From TrEMBL:
It holds the Pfam family Asp_Glu_race. This is Glutamate racemase. It comes from Wohlfahrtiimonas chitiniclastica SH04. Substrate binds at D16, S17, Y48, G49, N80, T81, T196, H197. SUPFAM superfamilies: Aspartate/glutamate racemase.
Amino acid sequence: MENMENMQNLPIAVIDSGVGGLTSAKEIIKLLPHENIIYCGDNGNAPYGNRSGDEIIALTKKMFDFLQNQKVKLVAVACNTISSTFLSKTYEGYEKHYPFPVISVIKPAVEDVLKQPYQDVGVIATAFTIKTGCYDALIHETKLDMPVYGEPSENLAHLIEQGDLDAPAIKEDVKHHVHNLLSKHPNLKDIILGCTHYPIVQSLFENAAPQVQFINPAHDQAAAVADYLKQHNLLNPQTSEGALNIYTSGTYTIYHTILSELGITKAPHITVMKF
C-alpha cells in the first residue's frame, strides 16, 4: 500500500473509447490544475456504442490493466457507454479487482439533475447507452415519476472521431436527433448530452434548439473527482502545472485537433500503443 504522500503524487486517470473524454479532462484540469493526468483513449476500437456489453467490458478491462501498471490514484470513466455497463449483469465492479476508486460520468450527472426542478429530461446518447436505460434507472431510483426520454445516435460519436468538426454530416446528425426528440416531446427544456463526444460540438446542439438547455455531464464528473480527492486527502500538493500524458490505440493527430477545439492549452505527451 502506498503511503499518503506517495498516493497524493500519483496521477488521475481519465478513460474513454476515444477523444470524447477530453471534455471531462478539460473540466478536471480547470478544477485541479496541479494534478497529473493520464488519459487513455481506445480510438483503435472506437466506437464502443455499437458493441455488445461483454465487448465493452473486455476492452475496458484492458485499459484498467494498463492503468494498474501505471499506478494511478483514481480513474474517471469519461465515457457514458462504458459507464452504462456498470448496471450490466456481467459487471462485477472494477473496484473489486483494481486498487483504485472509479468515478463514472453518469452517476454525478444524475445526482445533479435530481437537485434541479426539472419536470422531465431528455438524453441523447449512443445506441448502447440508450438501450441500457441507465439514466432512466438511476433517476427513477429517486424520482419514479420523472419522465426520461432517450434518443439514440449510432453515428455521431464516430463522426466526431473523424476529426472534421465542420463536416456537414455532423451538423445534420445533431439536427436530426434534436428535432426527432423535440418532435415527440415539444415542451422538453433540458437534454443531457449523454456521450462525452457531444459537448465537443455543443454549439451545434444549441443552434439546433436555442430554447433547450443542453447538460454537459463533464462538469459534474470533474466536481465529483475533486470532492473525492479532497475528502480522502489525495490532492497533489505540487504548485506547478500538472502533466498531461495521453495514451491512444489510434492516431495522435485527432488529439491535437480536439485539444485545440476545447481550448486545452496544456502541452500533452502523446503515446500510440495497444492496451
